[in-house]
Amino acid sequence: MTAVEIAPPTGKLGVLTPGMGAVATTFIAGVIAARQGLAAPIGSVTQMAHIRLGTREDGLNPLIKDFVPLASLDDIVFGGWDPITSNALEGARAAGVLEERDLAKISSELEGIVAMDAVFDQRWVKKLDGTRVKEIVSKLEQAQALMADIERFRSENNCDRLVMVWCGSTEAYQEASDVHESVEAFEAGLANNDDNISPSQIYAYAALMSGVPFANGAPNLSVDLPCMIDLAKRREVPIVGKDFKTGQTLMKTLIAPGLKARMLGLRGWYSTNILGNRDGEVLDDPENFKTKEMSKLGVLDTILQPSLYPDLYGNIDHVVRINYYPPRGDNKEGWDAIDIFGWLGYPMQIKIDFLCRDSILAAPIVLDLALFMDLAQRAGESGVQEWLSFYLKAPQSERDSGPEHDIFIQQTKLKNTLREWMGEKPVTHSEAG
Q1: Is the CB of residue 221 less than 8 Å from the CB of residue 294?
Q2: d(C-alpha 121, C-alpha 258), whole Å
Q3: Contact yes or no for 160/210 (Cβ under 8 A)
Q4: Closest CA to 219 of 148, 159, 166
Q5: Burial (CB count within 10 angstroms: exposed 0-12, middle 13-18, buried 19+), residue 269
Q6: How many CA atoms lie within 13 A of 198 on its CB side?
Q7: pLDDT for 433
Q8: Averaged pLDDT of the chain
């Protein structure tokens, strides 16, 4: 196979995060700790996973970071916007994810990462009160201000390349409207302050106009829109979305493929969460929860294919609940009650109680998406990067058949994309190693 020409990762890579709360500051702190040798980047596929080349007998299993030309952790520069937090240290302490003993070792570096004033509209996140926001009414001028921020950050930090990863809150539920149908309609909407344009879409537009790849870590319709897909292609910029696959949905994409592989039936899957961080507070509003709910509910149908297996999966009750419970903080707990059936229709049950740490699971996803999106841009890729569906609850797809949700198929697609770009043969029968 012929390898793709990939530009080398020379110079510095700026990683910009709209939102410098729990997820972003945990990501930043973890990268700083890793490059200082204080902790391993556990959970990061780019840093810790191997990739098999050829057959098992060949015994070739390099680390992914040694196989493809990724940016080094030492070359990453951090920046972002936040309507509440003034710097990464303040944001990390407020989030309460990391203990002070870990923050103290890197506190001066975290404190030096100052959040820029945010584009913020409380109509989209009623539970938050933004105090560090741009005093600009015009949405077009807000986009222009963000583009100015991007260029200033690029210049002041001598960055050769930038990527943007949305780490902000889940916005209130919306469906695409006429303003999202084309780039021209969207730009007219910016000029006319169209109510259907959310802050995350303004960030996405500013990133793409600035030639910056955009990854969406929330279920917002940030780039999952015709106008943004078209703009990404016009500007030759990669995009990917949406919603980091962390706790409960990660479990679903692990377990559902196993049930299907054994042809065991599913009658119902009840999921409930308790969460006490800023995300939990935002999701306590019904409109914001609906956005998250739609992201979570789409997983099972795609994996189980009820149209092909109506007797097994054609009558599933799938329920998702999220409850805001402040004492739990970032340590989310997800309960799943799964009703399955087997031989002769006899019922069985599976119970899962996942006491996870939301931002600890999300932080390595931010790192991997940033590095892989930068790689994609250097490889000449643009538009939707469906090969990164592995990381997302509701992956974007431009195919009529929609995205793949089975995490093992997603892993194969991710690694085979890397193999293809490097001129290696695909591996289709096993990803072991």
Answers
A1: no
A2: 42
A3: no
A4: 166
A5: buried
A6: 26
A7: 47
A8: 93
Domain 248-355 CATH (choose: 3.30.365.10, 3.40.309.10, 1.10.486.10, 3.30.360.10): 3.30.360.10
d(CA 217, CA 224): 12
Asked if the domains at 12-244+359-421 and 248-355 fall in one CATH topology, the answer is no
Percent of the chain with pLDDT over 90: 78
How far CA 252 is from CA of 60, 116, 337, in Å, comes to 32, 37, 11
Answer for the pair 110, 32: CB distance below 8 angstroms, yes or no. yes
- For the domain bounded by 12-244+359-421, which CATH number is listed? 3.40.50.720
Domain residue ranges in the chain: 12-244+359-421, 248-355
Distance between CA atoms of residues 218 and 243, nearest Å: 4
- Looking at residue 166, the DSSP 8-state letter turns out to be E
Measured distance CA(70)–CA(31) in Å, rounded? 15
Read off the tokens for 57: 């007998």
Alpha-carbon distance of 356 to 389, in angstroms, equals 21
CA distances from 247 to 42, 243, 430 (A): 16, 12, 25
Residue among 35, 31, 53 at smallest CA distance from 44: 31
With contact defined as beta carbons under 8 Å apart, do 232 and 251 qualify? Answer: no
Rounded to an integer, what distance in angstroms lies between the CA atom of residue 407 and that of residue 264? 18
Q: Which two tokens stand for residue 364?
A: 């390595």
**288/3: higher pLDDT:** 3
CA dist 377 and 368 (Å) reads 14
At 128-161, the pLDDT tens digits run 888 999 999 999 999 999 999 999 999 999 999 9
**Which residue from 377, 363, 3, 18 is spatially nearest to 213, judged by alpha carbons?**
377
DSSP string, 276-294: -SHHHHHHTSHHHHHHHHH
What is the pTM assigned to this prediction? Answer: 0.92
